[in-house]
């Protein structure tokens, strides 16, 4: 393999290149960390070396509203069980109540807030007469 970098000038097999890079990384590892106390000890300023510290943490941003994210997960659970259109999604004390229209049926789910399990499923067909006929 012919490499273009100054570090990898000569021709060598890819496996040899990878082994050499791995060896170099293991060798360099002992220089990858130096504690603040060690830096201050080596500095003529000692403990006055830094008067501010900034901490940077790289982690996924949390949802703006955990309750809303949990409701979305409950909707996804209901839609996985019955594909359709979400008609209503409410939150009760311990369950999410999700209503889905699928074809000529309305399916109401109760999904446990803490486990994500479907605790109740009520199917209502549109052919039922829900209204009074005054003829």
CATH architecture of the largest domain: Roll
In whole angstroms, the N-to-C terminal distance is: 90 Å
What profile does the largest beta sheet have? 4 strands, antiparallel
Count of β-strands: 4
Helical residues, percent = 25-40%
Order of helix and strand elements from N to C terminus: HHHEEEE
Secondary structure topology:
Layout (H helix, E strand, L loop, with lengths): L13 H15 L7 H7 L23 H16 L3 E7 L3 E8 L2 E8 L5 E8 L10
Antiparallel strand pairs: 1-2, 2-3, 3-4
Description:
The protein has helices spanning 14-28, 36-42, 66-81; strands spanning 85-91, 95-102, 105-112, 118-125. It folds into 2 domains: 14-48, no CATH class; 66-125, Nuclear Transport Factor 2, Chain: A (Roll), CATH 3.10.450. It has 135 residues and is of the alpha+beta class. The longest helix has 16 residues, at 66-81. The chain has a 4-stranded antiparallel sheet, covered by helices on one side.
Write a concise keyword list for the protein shown above.
135 residues; alpha+beta; 4 strands; 3 helices; Nuclear Transport Factor 2, Chain: A; 28% helix; 4-stranded antiparallel sheet
Give a brief outline of the structure.
This protein is of the alpha+beta class and about 140 residues long. Helices cover about 30% and strands about 25% of the residues. It contains three helices and four strands.
């Amino acid at each position: 393999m012919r490499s273009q970098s100054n570090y990898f000038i000569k021709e060598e097999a890819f496996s040899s290149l990878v082994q050499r890079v791995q060896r170099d990384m293991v060798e360099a590892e002992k220089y990858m960390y130096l504690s603040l106390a060690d830096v201050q000890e080596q500095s003529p300023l000692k403990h006055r070396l830094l008067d501010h510290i900034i901490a940077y943490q790289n982690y996924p941003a949390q949802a703006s509203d955990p309750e809303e994210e949990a409701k979305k997960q409950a909707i996804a659970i209901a839609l996985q069980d019955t594909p359709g259109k979400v008609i209503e999604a409410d939150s009760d004390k311990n369950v999410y109540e999700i209503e889905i229209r699928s074809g000529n049926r309305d399916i109401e789910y109760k999904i446990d807030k803490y486990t994500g399990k479907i605790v109740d499923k009520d199917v209502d067909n549109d052919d039922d007469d829900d209204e009074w006929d005054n003829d």
